[in-house]
Structure formats: C-alpha cells, structure tokens
User: Fold Alkylphosphonate utilization operon protein PhnA from Photobacterium marinum.
Amino acid sequence: MSIENIVKERSGAKCELCSSEDNLSVFEVPASPDTTAGSCVMVCNTCRTQIEDPEAMDQTHWRCLNDSMWSQVPAVQVMAYRMLKRLSSETWAQDLLDMMYMEEETIEWAEKGIALEELDSVKTVDVNGTPLQSGDNVTIIKDLPVKGSSLVIKQGTAVRGIRLTNNPLHISGKAAGTNMVIIAEYCRKM
Assistant:
C-alpha cells in the first residue's frame, strides 16, 4: 500500500488539521525522523499554502487546531504544535500550546523543524541590509585583519564571485589572492 493510500485511509479522506474534504494532498512533515506514512499528514490546499508561506497565514483558519492538536498521530501533533508556535502572539494559540501534551520525542521533532525554519528564514545581508547571493561581488568596508596571519584586507578591496556559507552571517570569497571567510556585515554589494 502506498504512503498516500495509508495516510488517506488514516485521515478518513479529510484534512488532518482542519477536517476539510476538498483539494487534499499528502504533506511530508519537515525534519521527519523517517520517510514512512507516519511522517506525513493529509492536508487541504488552504492548510498547505499557509504552512509553506507564513505570509499567507489566516489566524482564524487555524482555530481548527483546537481539535487536531489532540490527534493520536505524532505527525499531526507536530504540525499543530508548529502552527500554534507561529501563532503564539495570539492569546488563544498560546492557551492551546499551554494545554497541549506530546511525548518527549514528538516535541523534539517539532522543535527541530522550528529551528530549521528559523535558520532558513535568516538571509545573508551586507552592511546596508541588501540580500547577498552566491556569485555577487562585494567591497570590503573597513580594514580587516586576517586571523592567523599578519595580512590585512584593506577597505575598498573587491571580492568577486562570493559564495554563501552554511552560516548566514558569513560569506566566502577570494581577497588578496587568498580564499577566506568574511563576515557579511563588513561588505557592501557592488
């Protein structure tokens, strides 16, 4: 039996978050510990759109979490928890979070996904807040001593074809003939 069929049968052909029966699809919960049906939820198009685009959130739609947060399915609990965390500025959402109960490993799964979302939302920006991308050219805005050497990268030095690192605060590129990691806030996009 396919994952889609297992999740559809488990959900009773309804959205596991809001109980809608229209435009359903399987959604794999990010940061899942495995790739089985247990790591997926059946969601409607409305829920999926708002999960994937936090800017499109309609707070009143998510009052449905009052029911779905009590699901016995860990993936549904994780999604309910994450959505309530996004809405935690709303009093009703914070109240639901305070009442919610999950097993310890389910909480870890939920928190891991939230941490990944936050990391993905942090963008690499220059001194002016301009987003930087791989391949951009930047100028160093102040003299920077290079750790572990007597070399100083002078203000105004151009770094061409930068690469983003796994840390959004840093970029890497070639300055003064040497590949190095540079703090992004000491650069200005050209």
The first helix runs from residue 3 to 11. The chain has two domains: 3-121, 138-189. Helices lie at 3-11, 45-52, 65-68, 74-86, 91-99, 104-121. The two ends are 55 Å apart (CA to CA).
